Amino acid sequence: MLAEQGEWILFDFSLIDNNIDALLAGLWLTARLCAAGIVLGMIGGALLLGLSRIAGPRLGFLYRGYITLFRGTPLLVQLYLMYYAGPLYGLDLSAEQVGVAGLAMYGAAYFAEIFRAAIEAVSKGQVEAATDLGMTPGQTLRIVVLPQMLARCMPPLVGQTVILIKESSVLSIITVPELTTVAMRIANENFAILEPYAVLAITYWLLTLAVARFGKRIELHFTRHLLPMTSRNFHGK
Known about the structure:
Elements: E1 2-4, E2 7-9, H1 13-18, H2 20-55, H3 60-72, H4 75-85, H5 95-120, H6 124-132, H7 137-167, H8 179-190, H9 194-222, H10 229-235
Antiparallel strand pairs: 1-2
Helix pairs in contact: 2-5, 2-8, 3-5, 4-5, 5-7, 6-7, 7-9, 8-9
């Protein structure tokens, strides 16, 4: 809030205009880090689940241990340990590398459980029927399991993706110059709270809204066969 000619200005748009380049650079870095961390997290979650199935129950404790550790501790603590304690043990990574690795490892624990629940929801009778029809394991996975798994796991995948995008704001704690860091710097330099943090909140809201809308379209693609014909026509094709 600024006082100008005896009047109070509730929102100083010039403050945002003067820092628009820094805000856009922070937004671009946030988008890149989130995209890399989420994609790697999904790949890591799938690999975790696959390895747990291959290893069998004897090594299942490794899978459960990873899930319990990363879901049971805050992302902020994990980032602190990797960034500040990592160099003591030879893990010398930049802040951005730690940010991507932290989001990926934290997200992998959640994505693995989402994939596991979706696969287990597919009826074993369908898998047995596909085998009886002469399908190979690869064909069964591609034709029977994966389409149903994706239909079931898409809503929680989108939800977890949205959570990770919002969680990325804690990367500012390890000096990553992403959007939250830029907003904090603008607030400190100009003694202004409302403008930078309002822009920060609106930007995160728009990011998560875009991801949710995109996820909804993908969900409709994989669940079209479950919709009545009239609804299918309404949603398009």
